[in-house]
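Propose amino acids for all 390 sites.
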């Protein structure tokens, strides 16, 4: 493959789409009274709650902080066990550690790549307090089964829906189906606020705790105050954090949310171009879709049939990079990171996730790419697979 690369310029795997109206929305805030948490945050929270069909939403400085807040609100504390998937970004498990809890990794279903409810059930002990399913790539996890297990064992369900804004499960929008649901607004996600995250919930108690946790554990709510020194008075009632989103970011988020339908439609269109192009390539497995769900397609991941190829995943990954295709790998299973290994998590506890990790490559997918970009990716994949075909 010494010839000229398929593309002259590098195509990233994901990036934001910012229009002039997004820029104007931010400028308006910069000229106004509030920079940090003010009316634009409230407006953004309402817009997200309304979009996903939840009663409440609490915005955080990022999705990881939001997950931390959810673990706090769920009452996760020292020694409590929380079951999650290893096939995710480390934040899905780190949020449990922040609260002194213990993440327990349940292996994935090898077809959907999502957490396997059967494995969740097997790992439940009298210390288990919650389950954090992740809607990997945007395809919702098996929520009915997970809710059934949670009900039987009195567990809180916190959905990590960082990939799944706009996805549906059995026709219902992700964001109002579990105790709490987290969305992230990092620039590679469906919509962005620069950094940002949110928890949606229908539970007023969680809502109140989340608000207070986001701001140092402080309240000014007269109904909650234990004392009163005068009109300036507020109380810090538990150890919270400064996890507030700014109005600057929230205004960008609200402006972006207006375009979510277009963004998801474009993602779906590019996915069907990929699926059509790759279905006749034996060496590539395209993503299985659960007929119960509609994915919002954060990521497009191909799985390589390495038996049929003369190179390994690294060879193919590097060859695609040489074609200027911004490939990636999502994810290194969380328990394999050195930090987790040092906590005692061992290779072998989640064989399906570990095997999947060796065989996957994430291809570029974002609404701001063009059909020609998609065609470049397809050409590059075909070129590289042809080269390594046995
Ligand atoms: C992006 C992401 C997060 C964290 O969100 P941030 O806003 O980057 O903190 C958590 N879980 C998953 C699966 C993610 O993709």
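Proposal:
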């Amino acid at each position: 493959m010494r010839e000229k690369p398929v593309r002259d310029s590098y195509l990233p795997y994901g990036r934001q789409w910012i229009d002039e109206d997004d820029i104007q929305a931010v400028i308006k805030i910069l000229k106004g009274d509030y920079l940090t948490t003010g009316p634009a945050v409230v407006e953004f929270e309402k817009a997200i709650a309304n979009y996903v069909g939840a009663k409440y939403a609490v915005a955080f400085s990022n999705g990881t902080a939001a997950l931390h807040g959810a673990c706090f609100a769920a009452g996760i504390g020292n020694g409590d066990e929380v079951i999650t998937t290893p096939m995710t970004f480390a934040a899905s498990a780190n949020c449990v550690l922040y609260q002194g809890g213990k993440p327990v990794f349940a292996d994935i279903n090898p077809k959907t790549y999502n957490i396997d409810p059967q494995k969740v059930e097997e790992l439940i002990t009298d210390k288990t307090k919650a389950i954090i399913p992740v809607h990997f790539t945007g395809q919702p996890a098996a929520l009915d089964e997970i809710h059934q297990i949670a009900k039987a064992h009195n567990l809180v369900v916190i959905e990590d829906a960082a990939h799944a804004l706009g996805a549906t499960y059995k026709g219902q929008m992700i964001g109002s189906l579990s105790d709490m649901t987290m969305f992230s607004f990092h620039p590679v996600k469906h919509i962005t606020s620069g950094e940002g995250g949110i928890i949606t919930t229908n539970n007023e108690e969680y809502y109140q705790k989340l608000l207070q946790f986001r701001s140092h554990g402080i309240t000014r709510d007269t109904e909650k105050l234990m004392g009163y020194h005068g009109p300036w008075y507020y109380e810090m009632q538990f150890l919270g954090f400064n996890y507030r989103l700014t109005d600057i970011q929230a205004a960008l988020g609200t402006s972006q949310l207006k375009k979510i339908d277009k963004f998801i439609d474009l993602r779906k269109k590019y996915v069907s171009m990929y699926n059509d192009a790759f279905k006749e390539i034996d060496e590539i497995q395209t993503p299985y879709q659960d007929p119960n769900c509609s994915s919002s397609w954060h990521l497009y991941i191909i799985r390589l049939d390495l038996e049929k190829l003369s190179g390994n995943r690294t060879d193919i990954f590097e060859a695609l990079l040489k074609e200027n295709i911004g490939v990636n790998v999502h994810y290194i299973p969380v328990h394999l990171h050195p930090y987790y290994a040092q906590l005692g998590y061992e290779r072998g506890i989640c064989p399906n996730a570990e095997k999947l990790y060796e065989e996957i490559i994430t291809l570029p997918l974002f609404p701001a790419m063009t059909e020609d970009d998609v065609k470049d990716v397809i050409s590059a994949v075909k070129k590289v697979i042809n080269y390594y075909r046995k």
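Residues 81 and 128 are 4 Å apart (CA to CA). The radius of gyration is 22 Å.
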